[in-house]
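Recall the central idea of this unit: under ordinary conditions, the amino acid sequence of a chain determines the structure it adopts. In this exercise we apply that idea directly, starting from the sequence alone.
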Amino acid sequence: MPQSIALRPPSNRIRTAAMVALALALAAAVLAAGALAQGGAKRVAKEAQNATLGKTVLTSTSGRTLYSLSAEKNGKFICTASCLSVWHPLTVPTGVKPTGPVKLGTIKRPEGGTQVTYKGLPLYRFGGDTKAGEANGEGIKDVGTWHAATAPQVAAQPAPQPQPQPTPENPYPY
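Accordingly, the structure predicted from this sequence is:
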């Protein structure tokens, strides 16, 4: 004759732990949904000293030099179609705020997508740069000139000048 096994209801401690875990999971899901709805921010650029150019340039987070095209101003795109096979737009998902060492913005591309901008100019990576630190796209001319996006240089503060000190001969040196 088969024996029946009596199942005991879970203890209050187990039930409380399960409810706390469920509440934490629900809170995490709500926070994640809120971040997605707002778009959030994403670090897409950093800066690096480029020895070849002798300047501090903006790079992608993987260290690839970022460029802008001099002719792309006031929302006018020149680099479209076949140009995009060599010059790769730095993009972010719609609603995401790009961040980096400088103030970045976004612009809608003509074929769709959201491209990152610096000082109002769309940013690109050059297909001819095969590793971090290269700047092979600098100075290339076509319908404009491609330049590495340079980060502003912080001017060194001059050393403070010593202040005159009062002496018995000159109690008011100021």
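The chain is about 15% helix and 25% strand.
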